[in-house]
Sequence to fold (253 residues):
Amino acid sequence: MTINLKQGERLDDLQIKGYRIIQSPGRFCFGMDAVLLSSFAKVKTGERALDLGTGTGILPILLEAKNKGDFYTGLEIQEESADMARRSVQYNHLEDKIRIVTGDIREAAALFGAASFHVITVNPPYMIGDHGLKNENEAKYIARHEVLCTLEDVLRESGKLLGNKGRFYMVHRPFRLAEILSGMSRHRIEPKRMRLVHPYIDKEPNMVLLEGVKGAHPRMTVEPPLVVYNKDGTYTEELLELYGLESRKEAGR
Fold:
């Protein structure tokens, strides 16, 4: 299928099922956190999944490629990103499996209805306000900082959107872990599974993958850590497996 790319856009190979995604380096491109979350999350046969703050649609597309879920929805407030996501869905002929909705996470439950999804995924902004370096690019700044929605907004709406025993999957930064876990419990999303991601085996983790279940009993499993790099700077075998790659050279693409 031919596609007309807009100025500054490019078409990137996702290395799975022949799928590609439209991205604009001038706005925001997906990173390793999105790929790891897509492997950590599970969408079962017959289930409907919602990705909050989907950006250019990376998570719905990867989730569709890796799972047998019934349908995937991406919610994105920035129309330029949502437009790229829609065109990527069309390019990959996934219109019957994925839809992209332009809207505000803070109003998600009102938009879709209570208990309307079996699974929610989210790769939210990690930084509070002006914490960290401010990027002058507005699109990138919105993606990285809690400008248009907060962690509380994400957890509150997710608690409403999930049906009983529905599953919530999120990737975030460990420095906010206490806030995340208490917030999940407050909104009846019981933390059930956690995995820390370390850049090197002897370095502190810089990502955390979390699964919660709506209305479940308290009991959380902490999985073995995921290490990204070997000591020589090459990707670990597990990281390559999660990416679905056979060579370390490919992982750097």
User: Anything to note?
Assistant: The longest helix spans residues 79-91.
